[in-house]
Hints:
Distance between the termini: 98 Å
Helix content: over 70%
Low-confidence stretches: none
Largest sheet: none
Amino acid sequence: MDEEIQIINSNTRVEKIKSFIISKRNTIISIILAVIFVLICFFSYLEFSERKKAKLANKFNLVVSKFESDQKANIENDLKDIIEKKDKTYSPLAFYFLLDNDLIKSNEKINYYFDLLINQINLDKEIKNLTIYKKGLFNSDFV
Length: 143
């Protein structure tokens, strides 16, 4: 008798699950499709970001190699473009390259780029503090 009740209970549970899945089929399919869509968008964004960063890295390396081979036409503009992209890796590198090689003569422009690095680019805390320190050192020469 107990076995028959257990069989009936298990059959009832299975039927309830089947009826729930059948009644909510559209909702379940929509949720699965939404999750798949979100995953595709997420991985596409990561791939897009990676390609964008690789393109910026190639541009920076090309500019540096041009500078080393004395082809100095448009180097300053290319490095300024890299800074304006506001990348947390290559914007500071491009600015420091400009600064170290005295490609920017205007103190106002140098301070503008320091401010851009400090305020508008999401740098790590230590890199931001180092940039603030470098700005202080640079401006101390003119006080």
